[in-house]
Design brief:
Blueprint: H1 2-56, H2 60-86, H3 92-123, H4 130-140, H5 148-179, H6 187-205, E1 206-207, E2 211-212, H7 216-246, H8 252-290
Helix pairs in contact: 1-3, 2-3, 5-6, 5-7, 6-7, 7-8
Length: about 290
């Protein structure tokens, strides 16, 4: 019996490794195809179409309207991308397709806008685009970047891309773990799940391969992101279990344990977030005084 289980486990291991290798190869080929399509076809067609439209546009109002539309599209893109992320659990099968279509549509509009502006400025060199005007205004408000909230928000935005990559890798690993049959010993699954906290802490304190992140501000903002992520997961899970216990009033002992353990996790997460922010705020003001 034991030998049969070990043999089936070994077969599952090699078949799963083969599936993962095939998946990586397919994703690599698709990435190369998308890169070729983007550089050689998509960007070329979008730029030529934009130049064609730009050569036909003679009115300044139409160019301004094009820029305003592109700004509105940018806002819609961000909102829709966030909505897709929050619906990821329910629409995992179509997430990649929806996001790819939305991304290429957004980039197509941006390419057209930039080409129209370039072509229009050839005959109207004094024209100032809305983006250029906004950048000049932000440069004049350089003092605003020295405010604590603005400075830390800028750091937060810079970390979103790396956090998205880490989160995507985590989703892929968990998908392989849950969709493929690895072992009859469930302790193996538990050990992999225990690896997730190490995964996130590595992202916080290290850069690249075993290189310590020496930028204190970057480490701080990554810790805040990690604590916020834990807090969001804890609150959502607490709410789901709370609804379950409301429908089962007989388990009064379980409800007490649930409330104590759940609120303890929330309290610890909030304590870490508030402590990190207050400490960083005091250090930030102290550094400004020394300047």
């Amino acid at each position: 019996m034991v030998a049969t289980i070990l043999l089936s486990t070994e077969n599952n291991l090699w078949s799963n490794i083969l599936i993962i290798i095939v998946y990586i190869v397919i994703m690599g080929v698709l990435l190369l195809i998308l890169t070729f399509f983007y550089n050689m076809i998509f960007s070329v067609v979008a730029n030529k179409f934009g130049k064609f439209l730009g050569s036909k546009i003679k009115r300044k109002g139409i160019v301004i309207a094009t820029e305003l539309i592109s700004l509105i599209v940018t806002v819609i893109f961000i909102i829709y991308a966030l909505s897709l992320f929050f619906e990821l659990r329910n629409n995992l099968d179509y997430f990649a397709i929806k996001f790819a279509v939305m991304l290429f549509s957004f980039l197509f509009i941006i390419f057209i806008r930039d080409s129209i502006i370039i072509e229009y400025k050839k005959s109207n060199p004094t024209y100032v685009s809305i983006n250029y005007w906004i950048n000049n205004q932000l440069k004049r408000l350089n003092w605003l970047r020295r405010l604590y909230l603005v400075n830390r928000f800028e750091l937060l935005v810079k970390q979103i891309f790396s956090f998205t990559i880490i989160l995507s890798l985590l989703v892929i690993v968990l998908t392989f773990l849950t969709e493929l049959k690895w072992s009859h010993n469930y302790s193996h699954y538990f050990l992999v799940l225990c690896f997730i906290p190490f995964f996130f802490n590595y992202w916080v304190y290290f850069n690249r391969v075993i290189t310590i992140n020496r930028v204190k501000e970057e480490v701080f903002i990554r810790r805040i992101i990690m604590y916020l992520f834990i807090l969001i997961l804890a609150v959502s899970q607490l709410f789901i279990e709370f609804k379950f216990y409301l429908n089962d009033i007989n388990n009064s002992n379980d409800v007490e344990i649930f409330i104590i353990s759940g609120l303890s996790v929330l309290c610890i997460a909030l304590d870490r977030i508030i402590k990190e922010i207050t400490t960083d705020y005091l250090d930030y003001n102290k550094s400004k005084v020394l300047e």
